[in-house]
Design goal:
TIM Barrel, 12 helices, globular, Amidohydro-rel, signal, hydrolase
């Protein structure tokens, strides 16, 4: 049976350790020392409570973005927003109890992956990265990226108006990176997945579908993209990222009932092919940021079995990202 601790129970259980370590000091769910007030102030995140879920050791947040003002954006007229650095993200780690992290190259840097590489370096052995590339990337650059912890490339083509890469780039780059043991991460709409299923099916590298496949909330698993992805999973060619519940909902928090139905369907179909991500710092949400502990706790409804949750948070990402 899953053992869920309230904030009060957690604090009570660590009281003796806190006294020994000094006033105001706590151990988070992974044994990391944090100041009790630090976890209450996470940039680009709502709420202050820690998750109710008992987060397993080495849990992985497989989808975040880092933007650091030390690295210039592609558009010089669009300065880097505050609160998106590795130091900022560590506050979310302290709050949520995750340890491993996958940094996804943000659009503000185009195909210059230096900020992502720097973030992975700061995270050390517990960090991996996903790059954005142009087909003319050199072999030497691919080797540099691999040595720096990059394990895949992303194509975010869901919105063509701000896409850095294009669909015609997917196959030639997939051929290049397959030799490195990387995967292809696709951020496509459900309709795009259906329209490009032949292309996706012949790629020589595994495919990870962002944000549960971006299925329209009004259709959910009835959309044909669900069956397309499920068939790819049957062929050992695909994974699904349980992230972005707030991107695929007409109902909204706290339960995200429409997104939850899709997530539970993926858990039923292929729990061994799922990873979870917070999508911090939630760049699509311009007014109110989601509660990240609440997003993590959605796994309690999506995957009620604790062993399945451990697979999604620990074992599956360890295989996919080569931790």
């Amino acid at each position: 049976m899953n053992k869920i601790f309230s904030r009060r129970q957690f604090l009570a259980g660590t009281a003796s350790a806190s006294l020994a370590l000094g006033a105001g000091t706590l151990l988070n769910g992974c044994g990391v020392l944090v100041k009790s007030g630090d976890a209450d102030r996470v940039p680009n995140s709502s709420g202050t409570e820690r998750p109710r879920m008992n987060v397993p050791a080495n849990a992985c947040d497989a989808h975040i973005h880092i933007a650091d003002p030390r690295f210039a954006a592609v558009n010089a007229n669009a300065p880097i927003s505050a609160g998106m650095t590795v130091d900022d993200y560590r506050k979310l780690q302290a709050r949520n109890g995750t340890v491993r992290t996958v940094v996804i190259q943000p659009k503000v840097y185009g195909t210059n992956n230096d900020c992502t590489l720097d973030a992975v370096k700061q995270l050390g052995s517990q960090g991996r990265g996903i790059a954005v590339l142009h087909p003319d990337v050199t072999d030497a650059e691919l080797q540099r990226l691999h040595a720096g912890g990059i394990r895949g490339i992303r194509f975010s083509v869901w919105n063509p108006d701000n896409a850095v890469a294009s669909i015609d780039m997917i196959e030639p780059l997939a051929v290049r990176i397959s030799e490195l043991g990387w995967h292809v991460q696709l951020h496509m709409s459900g309709d795009q997945i259906v329209d490009n299923q032949a292309l996706i099916g012949r790629l020589p590298a595994p495919v990870v579908f962002d944000h549960m496949g971006r299925l329209p909330p009004s259709q959910g698993t009835a959309h044909p993209a669900f069956a397309v992805i499920a068939k790819l999973i049957e062929r050992d060619k695909a994974w699904v990222k349980l992230a972005g519940a707030y991107l695929n909902t007409e109902i909204g928090p706290p339960a995200y009932a429409d997104s939850t139905r899709v997530a539970k369907a993926w858990v039923d179909v292929a729990p061994e092919r799922l990873v979870w991500g917070s999508d911090w710092p939630h760049v699509t949400e311009k007014t109110e940021k989601p509660d990240d502990a609440q997003l993590l706790d959605l796994l309690l409804a999506w995957a009620p079995d604790e062993a399945v949750r451990k697979g999604i948070l620990v074992d599956n990402p360890a295989r996919l990202y080569q931790f």
